[in-house]
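Ticket #4471: structure output looks truncated?

Reporter: J.K.
Steps to reproduce: submitted the chain below (748 residues) through the standard prediction queue, then opened the result file.
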Amino acid sequence: MSGSAQDLGGRWTTRSDPWRYHLARALLSLLTLAGVMLLFPGTDGHSLLHMRVGQVSPRRVVAPFSFRVYRSDARLLQERTAAMNAVPTVVERDSLQAEAALAQLAAYSGQVRAVERRGGGSPELRAAELARLGPDLTPSTREVLGVPRLSSAVLELARKSLAESYSRGILTRNDLADVRRGSEVSLGAGQSEKRVSVQGLTDPYGAAAEARASGQQVWGEGSAAAEAVADVARAFARPNTALDRREMEFRRSLARESVSLFSGSVLQDEMIVDSHERVTEDVYQKLHSLDAAVERQKGEGTPGVSGVWPRLGRALTTLILVVVFVLYLKLYRPSIYADTSLLALLATLTLFVLAIAALSVRVFYVSEYLIPTALLPILVTVLFEHQLALFAGLILCVLVASVADLGLPFVAVSAVGVLAAVASMANLRRRADFYRAMGWISLAYAISVAALNMGTASSGEALLKDVSIGVLNGVVSTLLAILTLPLLEHLFNVSTDITLLELTDLNRPTLQRLLLEAPGTHHHSVVVGQLADAACKAIGAKALLSRVGALYHDIGKIPRSEYFRENQGTARSPHDKLAPTMSALILGSHVKEGLEMAKKAKLPRALWPFIAEHHGTGLMAFFYHKALELDPKADESSFRYPGPRPQSRETAIVMLADGVEAASRSLVEPTPSRIRGVVVRILDERAREGQLDDCGLTFRELAQVREAFIPILAAVHHARVIYPTLADPKRQGSDAHRDRESLPRDQA
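Returned output as attached by the reporter:
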């Protein structure tokens, strides 16, 4: 608004304070960027950690940086257990034990041979003598040993068998049971360590059994001599090999730790899982590994370069889209760009939809097709206009896809939903129209989802599920719009077409006062509204807004309605008794009083400019010329309306309609040609005075406005049939005049 830092609603709309003006826009852009980054801090796998193996991923996940993939807990335990079991049992051989046992056997053999050399006596006597020598042998064994020459063979065979067992290793029964859990053992330590089979190891009972088998090969199975060999071996068998449990645990611990926590790695920009792809065990583990890597970077507080670049790229993408949208507003919607409050509303709407998107894909883990991208174009169409809604909706689709890493199918489906939302909401006039739009938006989502997923759906059931999600999106988007619209209107003081239509109700208190206290002004406002409506439709401006604005543009005349010509009728004008400056002050005050009444009546802020700008800074020519007759040095500025000049096409059209309607009433014979002449003169005067410099009307549009005014004014001032009077011939002319005035208005 030219010459003012704020408009009528207290909004900063101009550059009279350029620092504050540009700072407000920069802050809004940065706040929007910060909001996006907070809602979508990064592609870190969080949004898919809820997925189970076998489910289908709702979106694509690409590695923002290189990281290593952890093994799953079960797989890690399995591989560590296998590594530990692969470690052979470590046993240590004690050679002294074997030497001592064999030495004892050799000494016993010498004693047996000494008994044989002494000779004499029966085998029973010799057996009794052997029993006194030790060791604990069975009577049958001592009897065999009492037989000359047989005893030497038995003892020698027992020695050889026992020596063989000692060479392989004899363990305790418990140790042997532990050793035989594996297939090999590690015998010895250091340089002399070697692997041996567990099959060669035995315990004392096993050594006796091996000795029996050797004896049976010589004397046959079941012979007393074979049993004697086994009994002697048993008596002199001692464990010469033992488990080295400490060394074994140490080696198993090393083997366990040698199994890496990681099973592989993922490189930066490598796709982990694609949209609508099945989540495998490997994919699931990669997502968890990515989450762990992100948390580790957060814990360190200084993420590496690999973590900075994805964030920087996402921030730059968001900033580019925000700048593109701001430039669009500046170039094609300057009135919105100049209004900080409206910019804040657009930023709020964008962040609101992005917050829902973040909840959908990062908290509730629903399909991306349920993100209500149609919500923004619905609200922008209703609160602003459809072209802005279309551009904002498409920008939002790209923004959500980029920050949430959603694929091309999401962009395509969302774009179709945006188009359907804008098309179905363009002519909204009743709240019931929302439900018609709901049907079209749901249908558009369903068709687009079905078209994109028909070739990739695993089954008809899966396709039906995706289509149902699309239909639900349309329903949710529309219901959210219905719920949030009244709140947005209240918070940002903006008006929808529905609200404007409600303001045309003649039962509203302000219009009731206008009709009863200033009927001429009310009629004038209705005609101005019809003119403005036709002109706005001709040039594509907001016809409903201009018509409602025209209805309320002169409400400031209500307190002093008798000072305005249209309300005076045949009565004498009260201005005849006032000085021209006082008359000008009264006429000019209806603008200020109208604004105060609008605020008190809580009329939407969109109507305030019509009250303030419908005269612009125009000159009250009648009173100025009257003042010049009294004082040639009269100050012209005292006879100008306070302004400002019209700042939009709609307020400019109401100014022109106000002027041509008032001027046309002064015509004695309002023929079409005279009406055209009045319209052309008023429009030319306003343009010549510079009243239209700030509104954006082109000469082409001005010509279209002119042609739209003329038929309406011609219809308002149509010729009327003069009916013959029915008065008595004896009555005087004044009575006849009263009879004519008493006829209905359309016959007067």
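Triage note (M.O.): checked the attachment and the full token line is present. Confidence is low (pLDDT under 50) at residues 1-15, 302-306, 728-748.
Status: closed, working as intended.
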